[in-house]
Write a structure and sequence with these properties.
With 158 residues, the protein is mainly β. It is 13% helix and 46% strand. The radius of gyration is 15 Å and the shape is globular.
């Protein structure tokens, strides 16, 4: 099955919908079922002694939402947020967290057969974040798993 860029739900076994986004000059995607909402950048209140990749917290309808700079967490240069940045609110291990990204670019439908394994030259740290690579229109989009990017113990600390 070919990868298509559309927002329709699919019921075929082995297919999954992914939301693609940019962090710096790289493209990543996550399972759309983890996404609760996509919102514009809101200034975050810094937390003392928080990990470097935690930008702070925002008030989301009365709940405290930690904001993670996904670029820093993935080992890329940090993001200086502007009105053009986006927060992807995701559910990870019974907790909601906001991921600071540059832009949401697409919704993709991919079958398991379209997802290529991470190359052997990648470090174990990269392999723990990147579940696979998805070739789309001549570019490669990294499929990341949020369970390893945002471990439960670190979410508790945030």
């Amino acid at each position: 099955m070919e990868i298509s860029a559309h927002a329709e739900k699919t019921s075929d076994k082995g297919n999954r919908e992914l939301i693609a986004f940019r962090v710096g000059r790289q493209e990543f995607c996550i399972n759309v079922m983890m996404v609760r909402e996509i919102r514009g950048w809101t200034a975050a209140t810094a937390l003392p002694r928080a990990p470097r990749y935690v930008k702070g917290v925002i008030n989301l309808r009365g709940a405290v939402l930690p904001i993670v700079d996904l670029a820093v967490r993935l080992g890329l240069p940090g993001t200086e947020p502007t009105a053009r940045n986006v927060i992807i609110v995701v559910q990870v291990a019974q907790k909601q967290v906001g991921l600071l990204v540059d832009a949401v670019s697409d919704i993709l439908t991919a079958s398991d057969g379209n997802i290529q394994p991470s190359p052997d030259v990648c470090s174990e740290l990269v392999k723990s974040f990147v579940k696979g690579l998805l070739p789309v229109d001549g570019r490669m989009i990294s499929l990341i798993t949020l369970d390893n990017v945002l471990p439960a113990a670190e979410l508790e600390a945030a």
